[in-house]
Amino acid sequence: MNTIQINDSAKKVIQEDGIKTFPNECCGFLYGKDGEIRSIDLAIPVINDKEGDQRRRFEISPLDYMKAEKYALENDLDLLGIYHSHPNHPAIASEHDLAKAMPFFSYVIISIRNGEAHEIQSWRLKDSERIFEEEKVFLPQENSVI
Q1: Domain count, the chain
Q2: Which of 40, 45, 70, 81 lies at a 20 to 30 A Cα distance from 108?
Q3: pLDDT in tens, 63-87
Q4: 49 lies in which domain range?
């Protein structure tokens, strides 16, 4: 099982974005360094570009992906994944999340229930298969693994 470490400032951005956009889904990019333990040092929100109901879906524009790649190159960071929220639902990857997933990326999901941040889980495509594998989430400030 892969492990992802989310630093306190990145976690705070994810939580605040999820709370602010509730009852809609928030989304953003995750940056850091890839290694034995994937380290998320920065989370940057982007606009949920999904037309229609954003309470159960998010979409990131191709232009925002291009900007994210450029930002990573200019700042000597790895673009490691995407985060999004599940309003009033668990932080478990959905079939829709799986259908849109790309190899290599971590998909961090935060559950926002009634406007309050709850559990954070992370998912990554299993090598050569179209299934998600849960990543261990380590939150250093709490000295805990989820």
Answers
A1: 1
A2: 70
A3: 999 999 999 999 999 999 999 999 9
A4: 3-124+136-145
